[in-house]
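protien #1 (seq + structre)
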Amino acid sequence: MGISYLFRKIANEQVAIELDGRQVTMTRWEALLRQIHTLALNKHASAARLLHQLRKQFPGSAAPGGKIITVFRDNDLKL
């Protein structure tokens, strides 16, 4: 088994996360990126740098048929 295979296997594992008092399942990779994104939004400079580097490393649009994630907060819904 190669290192790429192991990375994809672990990154695509489903994990249960508690979000707003309810259980949500997502991939381990998605959970990690959401955590980095949240830290960056909360003004953690190292998380913002890491997120910027990830965006530069993987430019472009999502793959066709890929999962698109949109997070809405209560304030977003108050138009």
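ok now protien #2
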Amino acid sequence: MIESAVLEAIVQPTRRRILDAVRTEERSVGELVEHLGMSQPGVSRHLRVLRDAGLVTVRTDAQRRLYRLRSEPLRELDDWLEPYRAEWSARLDALGRHLERTAPGTDDPPVTEETS
């Protein structure tokens, strides 16, 4: 089962932007401050929430702390969402078939230059 801390962490748009920023490479707090246009204390508070939820890891490199995405909790979320995606996909497919069957003029022959 997915941890509620993960859902609570990703509901906040700034935290999702941080996850996007650390998805492909490690980033320092300073880089995130610049990227987000926020204060260092604000970024640090968001990073603490993400770290506590297990969504980022941190390593120290001399004086810097480098953050990187930890994707396992997001995979768990993706696994949890899969049955809902399948249900919506089936419903949307059924809606598409219904709309094709009931669209006006679907039984009419196509208009050509000869019939117009």
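The radius of gyration is 24 Å.
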